[in-house]
Design goal:
By secondary structure, the protein is an alpha+beta fold. The protein has one domain: 2-Layer Sandwich (NE0471 N-terminal domain-like), CATH 3.30.2020. It is about 15% helix and about 30% strand. The chain contains three helices and six strands, in the order βββαβββαα. The strands form two sheets. Strands 1-2-3 form a three-stranded antiparallel β-sheet. Strands 4-5-6 form a three-stranded antiparallel β-sheet. The longest helix is centred in the first third of the chain and has 6 residues. The radius of gyration is 15 Å and the shape is globular.
Length: about 120
């Protein structure tokens, strides 16, 4: 989902243990894989601040990792405390929207219909 100005999460939920639901103010219901979200942590411990290289490896995150606590950070992001003890990542609303895995967002973009 592309996030427009003023669009914010209005509620959170779960669809089973593996999917976090984000209810957006524009009516969109986003779906995020919880392990994918943990692996995408943008903090300095998980991503090298100088090179941008990801430090967190997939094999370092348990398959059953879960959010324990989710709190707003200002009017732009969420902070998640994870079951593996990690809690320093701040997930911006823009990043959450980009990571949406719902059917509409995961569908391939239609081919460009303009003549070549």
């Amino acid at each position: 989902m592309e996030i427009a100005d003023g669009v914010t999460p209005q509620g959170l939920g779960q669809d089973g243990p593996d999917v976090l639901l984000v209810h957006w103010s524009n009516g969109h219901e986003g779906r995020l894989g919880v392990r994918d979200l943990r692996l995408a942590c943008p903090c300095a411990q998980c991503v090298d601040e100088w090179t941008g290289e990801r430090q967190l490896r997939s094999e370092d995150v348990a398959a059953d990792v879960r959010p324990r606590k989710i709190e707003p950070v200002g009017l732009y992001a969420l902070s998640i405390e994870w079951s593996d003890g990690h809690s320093t990542g701040i997930y911006t609303f823009e990043r959450l929207a980009q990571m949406c895995q719902c059917d509409a967002c995961a569908a391939p973009a239609p081919p460009d219909s303009r003549p070549a």
